[in-house]
């Protein structure tokens, strides 16, 4: 009965589990086995699953992936080519989910920053991780979260001590490279900022060369009171790679998180961001752009829950689909009972550049509290003909005019990124994916 | 410079221009006046190449070229400029970036060298001064948050920068108070040149008090029904467009 997808990944599961970091810890073994069983039992979400309505998995179900990459430690990666401007501090590199000390830069960490691969943290002191790693059985868990919980090889464990202000951005780099088989890899990250701490984190997914690997990633991000996280995401997987991510964010009182995300790569890339603003005065700002083209399918899901009083969230996302690209955006804001004084805004505007492109957007607002300010809006449209004519009437050729308007449309997602070098670089990467940039195939 | 012969044009299946002919020589200023719905704006849009305007008959020759065969950007590079009645706000497109892209695209199309940003800014600053526009306008998005007067002055500023051979001003006077109107007119007058022609499209004679035309034409029901010098505009002002319908031929059922 099991699909080729489930069968291939569950094959030799006992051996696989025995090789994982932390194997032998009774609580971890039990959690992994439980997740594996649930994965095998339920398989992939079907077409009737509301959360996967616009992202069909039928084709994936028929594909078989090799669990893990035995050669990950020795695969050649040109790290210089993957550096980001203005980001030259601590760096943690994973190739197909496997930590690569040789490519990472963990010497001379600033005081107050603890940064280790999960594999190491499990050996050194697993107990603090128990809370994060033994759960995963939450109601919304799906096949990918379970796969990840069962098989995650490694990941990043990042802690900032209370009050520590870490200036240098931390670069989390995950790389996929060509291999003989289609590989499945799983990464599990934990980020915790102590009270009043601050950090800039760059989450960078890079694909070098063509491949069709499947990656899953689960991140827990915990911001204790008054801490601040600037989180920058650049997703540039290979155009046929699959990447399924789930971020679970928890913001305590007066904590602030600002996310700027570019979703550019991946044949099928999905990001679920579940955020709980559970401390009074917490604030979450998310900005992002997803730009599918070719046959890419990019899916972004925000689930933002205001639980405490006087919390704020502002989400501003742009989608641009060209050729046969497909974009999916789901933005849900829930204001729980008692979360009075919440200020929540969500905007998702989308642009279709081709008659074969499609974007499905679904804003959802549920309010159970009083004195709430909430606004949401979503649009799907085409380039404004009046603007296009205006530019052309001044002599700008039609392709350049279209490119100019498309870039302008996306720019809002990066405008308030404080890190100037990254803002410029991300802007360039974005423009390079848009038609009329000269790099468009 | 511009020769329009027996021009027929259609918008959304409706005939708007019905045999319009007009000759504009180098350095001349022509005003086209007419009641609402006469086809004034259609003329500007057809000349600048806007989509949705179908030419069914007639020809337009500009500097010996078939203007109607050119894309809007090619017309611009050839020297045609349209000052919009309703300039479009384009959020996210920086004004300086836009102006330089336009300026250099035109130069490139004409086989001239493109200017770097320093050279370009120098020219921009000069032209801004002529239009009495604040340099901070350069850092804003195209027309975004501009007042009505600023938008119109920005159109004239773009004209000053792009130095067209033929400038078409589509109801540039509409919505302007008298001070803004004077500023716009000064900007236009500063650019009058023996090599540059103007086509002023307007509903009111008021603009012509400040920009003196060489010729005035009355457009009614898609045709020019009366031509004359600036005195014609004054007669129109005194008698209204109904006077043309009675007085001119054929222009109607009378």
From TrEMBL, chain A:
One Pfam family matching this protein: SUFBD_core
SUF system FeS cluster assembly SufBD N-terminal domain boundaries: 26-171
Boundaries of every SUF system FeS cluster assembly SufBD core domain copy: 182-409
Domain of life from the UniProt record: Bacteria
GO biological process entries: iron-sulfur cluster assembly
NCBIfam families named in the record: sufD
Family listed: Belongs to the iron-sulfur cluster assembly SufBD family.
PANTHER family associated with the record: PROTEIN ABCI7, CHLOROPLASTIC
Protein's recorded name: Fe-S cluster assembly protein SufD
TrEMBL record, chain B:
Domain of life: Bacteria
PROSITE patterns noted in UniProt: ABC_TRANSPORTER_2
Family: Belongs to the ABC transporter superfamily. Ycf16 family.
InterPro entries: AAA+_ATPase, ABC_transporter-like_ATP-bd, FeS-cluster_ATPase_SufC, P-loop_NTPase
UniProt name for this protein: Cysteine desulfurase
SMART domains: AAA
Domain ABC transporter: 2-246
């Amino acid at each position: 009965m099991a699909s080729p997808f489930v069968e291939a990944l569950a094959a030799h599961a006992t051996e696989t589990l025995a090789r994982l970091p932390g194997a032998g810890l009774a609580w971890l073994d039990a959690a992994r086995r439980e997740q594996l069983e649930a994965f095998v039992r339920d398989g992939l979400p079907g077409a009737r699953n509301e959360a996967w309505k616009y992202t069909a998995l039928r084709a994936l179900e028929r594909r078989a992936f090799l669990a893990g990459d035995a050669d990950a430690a020795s695969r050649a990666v040109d790290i210089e080519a993957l550096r980001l401007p203005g980001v030259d501090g601590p760096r943690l590199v994973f190739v197909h989910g496997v930590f690569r000390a040789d490519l990472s830069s963990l010497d001379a960490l600033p005081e107050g920053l603890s940064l280790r691969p999960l594999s190491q943290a499990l050996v050194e002191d697993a107990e603090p991780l128990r809370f994060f790693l033994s759960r995963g059985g939450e109601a919304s868990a799906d096949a990918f979260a379970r796969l990840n919980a069962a098989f995650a090889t490694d990941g990043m464990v990042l802690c900032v001590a209370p009050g520590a202000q870490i200036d240098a951005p931390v670069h989390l780099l995950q790389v996929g490279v060509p291999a003989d088989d289609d590989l499945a890899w799983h990464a599990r990250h934990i980020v915790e900022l102590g009270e009043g701490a601050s950090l800039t984190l760059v989450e960078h997914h890079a694909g070098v060369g063509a491949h069709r690997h499947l990656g899953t990633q689960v991140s827990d991000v915990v911001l204790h009171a008054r801490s601040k996280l600037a989180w920058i995401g650049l997703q540039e997987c290979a155009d046929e790679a699959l990447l399924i991510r789930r971020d679970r964010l928890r913001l305590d009182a007066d904590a602030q998180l600002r996310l700027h995300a570019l979703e550019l790569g991946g044949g099928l890339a999905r990001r679920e961001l579940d955020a709980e603003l559970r401390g009074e005065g917490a604030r979450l700002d998310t900005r992002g752009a997803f730009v599918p083209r070719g046959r890419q399918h990019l899916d972004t899901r925000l689930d933002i829950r205001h639980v405490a009083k006087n919390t704020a969230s502002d989400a501003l996302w742009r989608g641009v689909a060209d050729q046969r690209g497909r974009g999916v955006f789901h933005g849900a804001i829930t204001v729980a009972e008692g979360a009075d004084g919440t200020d929540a805004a969500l905007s998702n505007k989308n642009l279709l550049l081709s008659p074969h492109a499609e974007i499905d957007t679904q804003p959802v607002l549920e309010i159970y509290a009083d004195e709430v300010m909430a606004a949401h809006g979503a649009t799907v449209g085409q380039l404004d003909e009046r603007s296009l004519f205006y530019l052309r009437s001044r002599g700008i050729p039609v392709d350049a005019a279209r490119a100019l308007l498309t870039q302008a449309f996306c720019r809002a997602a990066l405008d308030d990124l404080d890190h100037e070098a990254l803002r410029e670089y991300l802007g360039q990467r974005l423009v390079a994916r848009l038609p009329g940039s000269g790099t468009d195939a | 410079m511009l020769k329009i012969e027996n021009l027929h044009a259609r918008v959304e299946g409706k005939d708007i221009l019905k045999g319009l002919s007009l000759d504009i020589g180098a350095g001349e200023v022509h005003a086209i006046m007419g009641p609402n719905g006469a086809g004034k704006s259609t003329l500007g849009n057809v000349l600048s190449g806007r989509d949705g305007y179908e030419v069914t008959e007639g020809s337009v020759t500009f500097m010996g070229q078939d203007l109607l065969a050119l894309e809007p950007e090619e017309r611009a590079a050839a020297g045609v400029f349209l000052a919009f009645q309703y300039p479009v706000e384009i959020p996210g497109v920086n004004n300086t970036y836009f102006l330089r892209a336009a300026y250099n695209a035109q130069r490139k199309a004409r086989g001239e060298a493109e200017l770097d940003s320093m050279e370009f800014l120098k020219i921009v600053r000069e032209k801004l001064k002529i239009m009495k526009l604040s340099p901070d306008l350069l850092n804003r998005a195209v027309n975004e948050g501009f007042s009505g007067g600023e938008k119109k002055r920005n159109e004239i500023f773009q004209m000053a920068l792009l130095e067209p051979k033929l400038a078409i001003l589509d109801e540039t006077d509409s919505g302007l108070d008298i001070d803004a109107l004077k500023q716009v007119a000064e900007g236009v007058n500063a650019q009058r040149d023996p090599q540059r022609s103007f086509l002023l499209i307007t509903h009111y004679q008021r603009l012509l008090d400040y920009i003196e035309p060489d010729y005035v034409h009355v457009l009614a029901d898609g045709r020019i029904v009366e031509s004359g010098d600036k005195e014609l505009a004054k007669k129109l002002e005194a008698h209204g467009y109904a006077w043309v319908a009675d007085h001119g031929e054929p222009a109607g059922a009378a």
